[in-house]
Amino acid sequence: MSGKRGNNEGSVYQERSTGRWVAAVSVDGTRRRAIAPTEAAAKRRLREMLAQLDSGLPVADGSLTVADLLDDWMATAVAGKQLSPRTVDTHTWAVEILKEQLGSKRVKSLRPEDVEVALTRLATKGHGSKPRPMSRASLVKIRSVLGQALTWAERRQLVARNVVRVVELPAEARPSELGRALTVEQARHLLRSIEGHRLEALFTLMLMLGLRPGEATGLTWPNVDFDQGVIHVRQSLKLHRGQLVLSDKLKTSRSRRSLDAPQQLLAALERHRMQQVADRLELGPSWSNPHDLVFTNAIGGPIDPANLRRALRKTTEEAGLGPWHPHELRHSAASILSASGVPLEEVADVLGHDGTRMTALVYRHAVTPSVAGARGMGDLLA
Description:
It is a single chain. By secondary structure, the protein is mainly α. Helices cover about 45% and strands about 10% of the residues. Strand 4 and strand 5 form a beta hairpin. The model is unreliable at about 1-5 (pLDDT under 50).
């Protein structure tokens, strides 16, 4: 390792602008610096850095702050990956919070306790101009983003270790709200209530096949195979920096899927197609649907997620079911399929999950008064 550092020595110097003492070495053409209050302390730090090099250990850049690291990670690692717009937005959101909480700290002196204090502060006081205590799920995302950035830095020998690996979430973090699902009878009632509704086919699709809201509103007519009775999930409508974009970058590797459609859903889609043709003829030049979307607003444009939430909420309230969210139709699909005896692996395939863990822990809820799975125990143990 000694042959890879500049002049085999490194250097100690004083910055004219700040008066600080700096110890610096060169590692594979990149300078690593450590700030010290005195010349003696800088020389001591240089000896430590040289010893680390000779031992084959990574030498952290002493001047690198958490904010600098996060900016570098976003500009190189994140920008270089083909991530969905939503994932990029989540990373950007978490980075902004981390920079506010820990940005000025030097990476070399970052301790697990520093991260835990920041997470506790977010769990109790929140973040931003209208602070609200953050949920456990939000803290998990923030911790994950910092951990990814430090792992990236560790591989490049910018840090000696990833402290996030031992960071615990605060006990004060409020648990995420438990999910819920429509019961079988509630689902039947909803389907009866939406007959003739402008978005009947959309709500039926989400309830019967469990599509994510963006997958449902991003469905195009070429991906509806009426002859074979199959719905192909190939794209998703996403809100990215205030703009609705149709993306073929789906959430997971299993999100790209083809699903057999119940006859009731196909009939609703056929009625919807006929109505869309009538709308297009009536509006003439005012109609514009360049992506050939199945579900549009009144003039052919994509459906805004906020408008979808409002429309479903109004519909379920008018049906006497109270307010429901589009994601809860997806939860309902998973729960009803599971309750009807469909194996969990198949339910996960319908939802486009990578494995069954998320399906079992998050999406499956009780939709019957009791659990029938143990009925056969009497015969087994007789």
